[in-house]
Amino acid sequence: MKPYVQTGLAWSAGATLVACGISLVASSQLPDSTQIPIHWGADGSPDKFADREGATFMLWMMPAISAFIATCMAIAATVDPRQANLSASRKAYLICWIGAMIVLTGIHAGIAFMMTRTGAPSSGSPEMIRWIIAACGALFILIGNYLPKTRSTFMMGIRTPWTLSSDMTWEKTHRLAGRLFMLAGALGIIGAFVFNGIWLALQLSVLAIGATLISVIYSWFVWRTATDREEGSGYIV
């Protein structure tokens, strides 16, 4: 097993243990009620409820999700056909992996807090949602910083037919994508404390989709003039 995969699994194990601890503590503090919130709308108001048993089940879902994502990341690093390139991109891969674990643990802590605060004045506050969105924006900035340093792989980055068939196209596309994702993250952090309602929930997703689409379209234009693009094997079937 590659050292960076071991590092990712170690961080994941730590994050999963913390999430289990949060679930254990929160489960013991859940009120005896059939109206425990388990989902919140864009304005921070609870819009889905469950009894104590259902809420406990939801609390233990996040550690399971974290473990599943960690497993997928480890497997992906093993099966990628371009192992040398993925190893060269290991810092970016680890940032995505570890960052996702930290953000998921933070989200879990926020959800557990709001579930145990049923009936309290702050239980419907959107402030927790704002901080979760801001944390995701910070992760976008970190990812954007490392995207230009990646090499062509099948498991991360802007993977289009054009970037995967031309190293020049990959490099130029990810230089632009890195800047766009950093901008999206910065704007997302600002938007987390400016927007309300549905735009509070959607603004970061819109920014991320926009950055991705621009990068995909740009990759095609770069590929058209790339000097190292593949023209085919020449086989006749």
TrEMBL record:
Top-level lineage group: Bacteria
Biological process terms in GO annotation: response to toxic substance
InterPro entries: DUF1648 (IPR012867), SdpI (IPR026272), SdpI/YhfL (IPR025962)
Domain DUF1648 as annotated: residue spans: 17-59
Protein name, per record: DUF1648 domain-containing protein
Native source organism of the sequence: Hyphomonas pacifica
